[in-house]
Specification:
mainly alpha, about 140 residues, about 0% strand, Four Helix Bundle (Hemerythrin (Met), subunit A)
């Protein structure tokens, strides 16, 4: 597998995380309705959501914020052939940090643990963008 092909696997791994979070959100919403803590109609406009499904919903929303920049830089690195083993490793590091962030978010939701996972991924993402800028500036 060339680095170019390897660049795509972290994206696929992140998509898997998003699908898992959708499944978790669905399970938690069904459980809330079954337990009588919410009515199914409450999810139509999402004005009130039980705590368990609220954290899953917020975590899912987080996967469409910072990771959008990850998708963009990964695709750009792929298109301009600027990827290498370091960028692939940084991509995997970002995705692992998103998994850790999501795990904390949907379990204990303690910022003490969630924030370091976010910052680590943020730093990795920043390095990917710096590398892309350097590549474009000097090639």
């Amino acid at each position: 597998m060339t680095p170019t092909e390897a660049t795509l696997w972290p994206l696929i791994a992140h998509v898997l995380l998003v699908f898992m979070l959708y499944a978790l959100l669905s399970r938690r919403r069904f459980a809330a309705v079954r337990a009588g803590r919410a009515k199914a109609s409450a999810f139509r406009e999402n004005r009130s959501e039980p705590d368990g499904s609220l954290t899953a919903r917020n975590c899912l929303a987080n996967q469409f914020e910072l990771p959008v920049l990850f998708y963009a830089v990964s695709i750009l690195l792929y298109l301009v052939d600027a990827d290498n083993l370091v960028t692939v490793a940084l991509g995997w590091f970002f995705v692992v940090s998103r998994y850790a962030h999501a795990y904390v978010h949907v379990t204990t939701n303690r910022l003490r643990y969630r924030r370091p996972a976010f910052v680590a991924g943020f730093a990795a993402l920043g390095l990917l963008w710096v590398w892309l800028a350097v590549w474009l500036a000097f090639t």
